[in-house]
Prior knowledge:
Helix content is 32%, strand content 14%.
Amino acid sequence: MVILHGPPPHQPVPHQPVPHQPAAHEPAPSELYSPGALFSWPELQAMAADGLLTQLYQRAYLAPGTRPTTQLRARAASVLVSPAIRQRVVAGRMTAAWIYGCAAEPDRLAMLVDASRRISSLRSTRGCTFHEVRLGPFDVVSLGGLMVSSPLRTSVDIALHVDPGRAVPALRALLGKPELGLRLRLLVHAIESTPRMPYRKAALAKLEQLRAGPAP
Length: 216
């Protein structure tokens, strides 16, 4: 029970709409909610069941009507990555494509680990698949507290390592976002410039499908 002291509150004029004032327990827009000091996971699940939250990914929730952004998706992925290893791994491949808003949410996070780091100690991490790779200085960006492969590195990796049924739509979506700064000829050049790259011919075949346009 809440007891108010002082004069009665101002009464609204009849037929005049009263702006909605969110209650203390209602989530604020554009905020990401995950298990922590504020709410436990069962509490978040209960709030989602009551319509106060919508699930973005796994244990990450948003206020209803909040538009998912690249930053919010990156933060949602970071919830599943232990802080102890967060600076040692990079979200890549189809996980990065999802973060950029160009693929469906992944069942497991695809995480890249630079070859200069030990990957054996990470194998026991749940919910993630690790890939040992070589990362250049321009292959990684920081988004929402998580390191993510750059749009170009993401696209090259998808062309090389993801089956055509998933790769081609994701690549088309990545190329369709001007803010990512990608061009088809740039992807072709990135793959052709490394002749000894494994799966090079298959990757170029996927890019040729993009050149031909969407399937009928």
